[in-house]
Amino acid sequence: MAAPELIVTPKFTLPAQLSWLLIFIQVFNVGLLYFELSLWVIAVIVLCLLWRLLVVLDEKYQPSHWTIVIIALAGCVMLLVSSKQLGLLSTMLHLLCLAYGLKTLELKSRKDFYQLSLLGFFVLTSSLIFYQSLYFSFLLSILLIINVTALLMYFTGKTSILTLFKTASKLMMQSLPLAIVLFVVFPKLAPLWHVPAAKSSTTGISNSVKIGDIANLALSDALAFRVEFDNNAPDANQLYWRTLVLESFDGATWEQSLAQKQIKKILLGSNKQRVFTFEDVDSQGANTQVKNNQAKNSQAFSYQGISYQAFSYQGISYQAFNYQVIAEPSFQHWLFALDIAQVDNTRQIMSLPDYTLFSRQVLSQTVSYKVTSYQQPLLDNITNKQETLLNQHLKNNKVRNLEFPAESNPRLTKQGQLLRQEFPDKRQLIQAVLNNYRQKPFRYTLQPPPLINNSLDQFYFETQAGFCEYYASSFTYLMRAAGIPARMVVGYLGGEYNPRGKYYGIYQRDAHAWSEVWLDSIGWVRIDPTAAVHPARVEGGLPNDLLQQQSLLSGNFLSLYRLRQFALINNLRLQFQAIDYQWTRWVIGYTAKNQFKLLSGWFGNLRPYKIALLVAFTFVSIMFLLWLVNRERLKIAPKPVWLVLYFQALVLIAKKGLEKPKGMGIWEFSKLFSRWFSERFSDPKEGEFSSVVQSFAIVSKIVISIEYQKLSEQEHQQALLNLRAEMTNFKQEIKKLKFNKSFKV
Amino acid sequence: MQESVKAILSQIGSIVIGKPTEIRLALASVLAKGHLLIEDLPGMGKTTLAQVLAKTLGLSYQRTQFTSDLLPADVVGVSIFNQDERCFELHKGPIFNQVVLADEINRASPKTQSALLEAMEEHQVSIDGATYELPSPFFVIATQNPLFHAGTYPLPESQLDRFMMRISLGFPDIEAEKKILLNNNSQNQLSGLRASISTDELIEIQAAVQAVNTSMSIIEYVIALCRVSRKANNNVNPLSPRAGKALLSAAKAWAFMDNRDYVLPEDIQAVFVSVCQHRLGETGLDSNTASGSQAWGSETSGAVQILQQIDPISPL
Amino acid sequence: MMKKIKEKINARLKISFDRWLKRRMPAASVQKLSSKNIFIFPTKFGFIYLLFILLLFLFGTNYQNNVIILLSYVMASLFITCMLHSFFNLSGLTFVLDGEHIGFAEQKMLVPIAVITSKERFDLSLEFSEALLSSKRQLTKSQPLRVHVDKAVKGELKFNIPFVPAKRGITNPGRIKISSEYSLGFFTTWTRLDFNIKLVNPPKPIVIRGYSPELSGDDDGVKQSKNTSNGTEDFSELKNYIAGEPLTHVAWKQMAKGQGWLTKKYHKEQGNQCWLTLKDIPANNIEMKLAHLCFLVLDYHKQGLEFGLKLSSTSVPPSTGPEHVKNCLVALAAYPQTNRLADDEQNALNKVSL
User: Fold this and answer.
1) CATH architecture for residues B212-309
2) A630–C88: do the CB atoms touch at under 8 Å?
3) The complex's ipTM?
């Protein structure tokens, strides 16, 4: 019991409990951003918190104002120095956290406390720029409740923290309905102005691939993207998720050719250019005239034109797959799709001539897009319109994909030349190479013996053990050496089907590399040498022996391999992932378009007034509900069933015009009812009416016996049964009464 | 046992005419082992009722007229030095009877009143340091003149609490009054009364009354009534837990007399005014027909108001 | 000039607001809070919080981050939830306050108020709403005239609201402001209740220069004696001793003579009673005189002297005890306001009605 006290000194002090809670909150709020902050900022914040700890323990350690100012200034200078490296967003974030850390040392008034609380909210929410998964959001909401708890504690004095947490949770829960309605209904706005994107280290497949890169990537169990097919999905061995096409090889590293880089540059440089021309691609040689080409845009031959025509190639229609991809943030531009992909959202996503998809913006947060893929040979050379341009493009393309540093792997070069002589038919040549992989003792492994200088020679002729990129790389090299245009494609293969979420999850461990060769009259043909070495990989993802390897190498305790050992845990995992998927799809991926579709479905023609009405309606109903919950009322214990029945009877009688006086007992009332009844309905047809009286008397009697008499369990049950039976009887009787009454009156 | 109860009621009813409810209340008080206070104007039959009650129950009884010069020793008894035996001898006062009829208790001085009331509470008296048990069953019927009569010492509220019930008889109706006036040998009738039951039987009945079932909702009802009396500002003396206890046992007796082995809210209501009105510090004279079951008429005494505030079906 | 107009407008507004308040929330000694008399308005922090939500929303929109947008909606919704909870925190509270309360002018006094609540309430502050407006601003600064409780548990509580009466007189201290910033400080909920109480404010006691109880003599209009006040002056008669009378008054002589227990009765001299008289107080203005008188009343009471009080039109007959002192203080407070002050008031009224 808190005694009313007179405030004599206006000196501001926080209760000890609240001080501790604030420190706790700060640790967690900043902790959420741990991976985004520079080490020195974290150090400063930790220092501030430790200092605060001292102050809480003993007030004499309170630092002077100047100390704080000096720390703040030093921090700002440090930030200024490192701002270039950090980028704008990160700098702002650092500044925010720094202020948050320093504020804790300066809690001198209520205003300071408010500021600290708001800064806490800010820090908390800013972490959502980086992480949005369901788990993270859940963690964040709990932290949010704790933040609110601290604010609440300021106003409630000595109340146990658990009670306050409950109250805060209640507040949040009560706020949720309106928030959800607003979320669903309130128009989704386009970005109002350009904001600095979050910078973070890239994840997933990178622009250049060396031998061993994919094997390393495959150690990670991180989610790369998820796919949900609208109808049917292709076979598992067709799930080649094309991400990047690498055309240039310097003997060790596969990279994008200059032409490809040029495209990227153009795309990033101009927001207006939607359709992309071959000239852009081909002008790379001189690396000039980019602007001119843009100007010629309108006349230029559209690359997309080709792909449209490709669909009906030779009169055969190919099966189309519609699906939605939800990509996790990779901080790169590359997107994922099956061959050949077409996207609607050309504003944000471009189709590149090498059939890859390219996002205008770095994937700094979860992105979802719809793709239609047509499974067919990758054709390029059909149209005779604007032939010169196209031919020029194809020629350039072929030339690029024949280049290789011959001296880097002399034995392979020689092998290629030999093959070229041996097999004039390209198909036979390819088949021979694949057969070679099959017949020779090549091993598919995540732990290949090391290669000197990334020598493909060494791999192909000596160690003969490696991961997919070893095979793809050596195969592509061999093809080029044999005079067949070939290129390296990296991406993902397969994916894990989640039967609960009905989606495919593609993880980094599914990273894969394969090659494509150019066959005249057909076009680019996908050849996966890994399939020759280890067909199981293509059919059903990483086989168990590799998973075991992966698990050992990555040191991940909860690796897929381990999890798969236990059916229950695996089921649970799938369930959780399915929930997370729904969250990602419906909350993170809820776009203006989705919103329009959803709301049109509900309300037909979408009008602003409807939305306003809906929001207002929700608002009012929530207010009303809260009112109901909070209004002052006597606490009514849940009534036992017999009393509920009895009250039903009372209500029925009250409708006829007799209300039970409040203080009257059951027995008295049954007598009163009988008196009242005989006074009111003294009718010749008494027999009918008195049955009501009789029935109610029986009801009353049973209720009395249950409520006041000592009954055995059996008697009690029997009485309840009797009561129910009599109640139905009574209800019928009293209904009859209504008819008779109106008849009589 | 029910037969004996009926017999008692009819026997008392034959002498105290036209007051069945009051008789029932008085008997309920006896069966619930509570003391009874009868308050009314002189000549209303208070003393008669008390006498008939004692006689019918077959208990030893003595009537003591309380006057202003009555001393505690006159009630309790004194030790007197016996010259022959050379020792103190106890001369027991009227209190050593099973039924003590304290007539016009409020005319005695407070000292004497409290001597009696202490004995009532403790069922024992101490005289000159020695403690003497009172007989069992022990039952005090006190009659009281209305307080505005001259020469009275009102009983303090703390002592009023010791009486389980306060009833008042009120004027008889025409028929009853006719009978009273026509009956000219009431004294003979009174002396000719014979006990309807034995002492053992009475004790048995008292035990049976104790065993009457009170369900939880009855307990809650009693609690709710007490709480209401505490909440309302106008009650000088709210109902104490002891009042609640008295209410419950009186209701048990009432239920028993109704041939039931369980208490109904109606029983509580029947005895409520008698049990609680004097504890609430109200005078009882305005409620001549203070019998609970008709309590919701036009009456608006504090006790009745309390009853009207609580729904017995879901009291708390 | 502008300032004057502004002041006038403010005064006008205040008057009409007060009138409105009076109609809507009339005076009563028991008042229960409900939607009829509770006001809610966001605090500064509440507005800043709203700004924060807007910022959050823009942040989320610009980054097209739905989770942040959702969070901003949750926070906005929380704002509204808090509004309701702020209201529920006050609604249903019952306050009881009436009667007269005595406190010296310009000194802090405590006015007790009873609060009845059926559930827990938080962060309640009670103060006289006029106290802040009164001229005693410097006093309020050093010690806030407010009683504050973090948590009021179920049941009945007593609060003492501090108040500093501006000047002598019997006044109505105006409305009591009851406010709370529960639950998160976004809103302040408040009400101003008029309990129609009377504050009896006797003047602030001021020591008479040079006064000392021993020295003061008849010339001050003061008769002073150091002994017990129970008339010790003149012996008048002997009476039978009644148990409980002071033994000092027992006539031992008579007892020794065997005449039994007798008590000596004294009785005071009528003509030479101790009167404190207004016109005899040495001061040059009435207020000062009253202040001195007040001091004397208290001083005499402290010494246990019997005295009476004579003001120009009223007087309090000689007596002792706290009840007597109270009567004297009431008389001092009730003494008509001197003209100068009355003029000031008149001026103020004129200003307002212009």
Assistant:
1) Orthogonal Bundle (1.10)
2) yes
3) 0.82
